[in-house]
Design brief:
Chain lengths: 117, 111
């Protein structure tokens, strides 16, 4: 079946612009995660959605970052007033149930490579 | 704060060799430990997931062990092949369903 789909695959934008990154999880997966992968920091957790519960936003680096998940499916990560340090690969993952409670593995998309000029 | 360390950072071996990748973590209060593979320009592929109550998991030529009390895990790859060349990432799942990743081991298997 289809895996996790992310769009766009690449995004180049000017400093100060807003960007939206999209994630389509695997159908039926209730848990959705966003991570950021950068050269200096490695892979970092950003935010986690589980069903209709309030998301865990504890990994978001600043209030310029926000994310939503509509209808328990598609998620959008928004970065406002982008800065050069936001340049990274943003990865989305989904799992059938929350991995910590169910030991269901996370399935990752190929990511969006974001470059801020 | 949980820290995950992977050794070595890079490894180059001839085809056919057996090899071991190491992962250590500082806080033993984890739900599980996962090993992932990442190919250039791609996302992560889950290889093995070891629950905190388990000692090891096996899949084909891969075997992962977990010693939770000492904060260590190893990934054993038998009879390595050029197609195994990739970055291997270790991650621990903490309370709140957050994965904390190591920096990875870049593996190159030469034919």
């Amino acid at each position: 079946g289809a895996g996790v789909s992310q769009s766009p695959s690449n995004k180049v934008t000017e400093k100060g612009k807003d960007v939206e990154l999209r994630c389509d999880p695997i159908s039926g997966h209730t848990a959705l995660y966003w991570y950021r992968q950068s050269l200096g920091q490695g892979l970092e957790f950003l935010i986690y959605f589980q069903g209709n519960s309030a998301p865990d936003k504890s990994g978001l680096p600043s209030d310029r970052f926000s994310a939503e998940r509509t209808g328990g499916s598609v998620s959008t990560l928004t970065i406002q007033r982008t800065q050069q340090e936001d340049s990274a690969v943003y990865l989305c993952a989904s799992s059938l149930m929350a991995t910590g409670y169910s030991n269901q593995p996370q399935h990752f998309g190929d990511g969006t490579r974001l470059s801020i000029l | 704060k949980q820290e995950v360390t992977q050794i070595p950072a890079a490894l180059s071996v001839p085809e056919g060799e057996n090899l071991v990748l190491n992962c250590s973590f500082t806080d033993s209060a984890i739900y599980n430990l996962q090993w992932f593979r990442q190919d250039p320009g791609k996302g992560l592929t889950s290889l093995l997931l070891i629950q905190s109550s388990q000692r090891e998991q096996t899949s084909g030529r891969l075997n992962a062990s977990l010693d939770k009390s000492s904060g260590r895990s190893t990934l054993y790859i038998a009879a390595s092949q050029p197609g195994d060349s990739a970055t291997y990432l270790c991650a621990v799942m903490e309370y709140g369903n957050k994965l904390v990743f190591g920096a990875g081991t870049i593996l190159r298997v030469k034919s």
